[in-house]
Amino acid sequence: MIKGTTKLLGVIGDPIEHSLSPVMHNAAITEMGVDYIYLPFPIKSTDLDVALAGFAAIGVEGFNVTIPHKQAILSRLSQVSKVAEAVGAVNTVWRTSKGWEGTNTDVIGFLAPLQDFNISWSEKTAVILGNGGASRAVVAGCVELGITNIYVVGRNLQKLEAFQQSWLNSPLALSLNVQTWESLSEIIHQADLLVNTTPVGMYPHVEDSPLEEEVMNRIKSDIIAYDLIYTPHPTQFLTLAKAKGAIIIDGLEMLVQQGAAALQLWLQQEVPIDVMRQSLQQQLGLL
């Protein structure tokens, strides 16, 4: 029941129509019986400043941030958490008397499904596809796991070098190796953890994969393949990886865990993670 007292939360991005965040957040809000609603806001990069001013004017309490704003919003915040500063990207923002503040709960979300594996990560190699805001959270997560050999693969050498350079003053102690897409066939066989952070294969382009089958043929049989995309379920990338014997993880649990961490931050109380997960599974026809 929306009332005159109902407080606003939401998610900004472009595009945003595909987002399932409203499904899980509103399910949790209903379960908790709090007077909030969570809405999707389509915001173009050119409208970010106007949107933030509008949010402040109408009293938005907090919001999530997705593509393409995770890095751009940093300079618009009065304060960011240490983890967000280290990652160089923000996905969760809240309003204070001093202005907007932000953090990054993607690292928590990314790590959640990997905690179930009884693995010594220190001698492992991670290959990360993509060098955007989501990739930064994955790099930070890999460092937290203790992975010492991290490759980040992208298509634009200039952007890759800028990505590598941006970590030089990070408080995270990491050894980062950037490679162009053409080098994948030479390094893919080293990967123990292969992570897709690109939007390639996301609905409605369900037949696409960031890697062709020829490259996937080179992966280890016991590799963990992780796609941050959660729709379709599974992606073509994960389907190809599973056919080669890989353990596969999709982005659903990451979405749930990062969302739960954000909602807990906004409301300052425990949130029903199971309800959030079940709402997504139902929405995706997995129940």
Task: Write up what this structure looks like.
Shikimate binds at residues 19-21, 66, 91, 106, 230, 258. Its EC number is 1.1.1.25. It holds the Pfam family Shikimate_DH. Residues 118-199 form the Quinate/shikimate 5-dehydrogenase/glutamyl-tRNA reductase domain. This protein has 287 residues and is of the alpha/beta class. 35% of the residues lie in helices and 20% in strands. A six-stranded mixed sheet has the order 2-1-3-5-6-4. Helix 1 packs across helix 11. The two termini are 27 Å apart.
Provide the fold topology.
Elements: E1 7-13, H1 21-32, E2 36-42, H2 48-58, E3 62-65, E4 79-80, H3 82-87, E5 92-96, E6 99-103, H4 106-111, E7 125-129, H5 133-145, E8 149-154, H6 157-166, E9 176-180, H7 184-187, E10 193-196, H8 213-216, E11 224-227, H9 236-243, E12 247-249, H10 252-267, H11 273-283
Parallel strand pairs: 1-2, 1-3, 4-6, 7-8, 7-10, 8-9, 10-11, 11-12
Antiparallel strand pairs: 3-5, 5-6
Strand content: 15-25%
Give the helix/strand class: alpha/beta
Main β-sheet description: 6 strands, mixed
Q: Strand tally, please? A: 12
- Listing every helix as H and every strand as E from the N terminus to the C terminus, the arrangement reads EHEHEEHEEHEHEHEHEHEHEHH
How far apart the termini lie comes to 27 Å
Helix count from the secondary structure assignment: 11
Radius of gyration: 19 Å
Q: Helix amount, in percent?
A: 25-40%
Strand order of the largest sheet: 2-1-3-5-6-4
Q: What's the mean pLDDT score?
A: 94
Task: Report low-confidence residues grouped into runs of 5 or more.
Answer: none
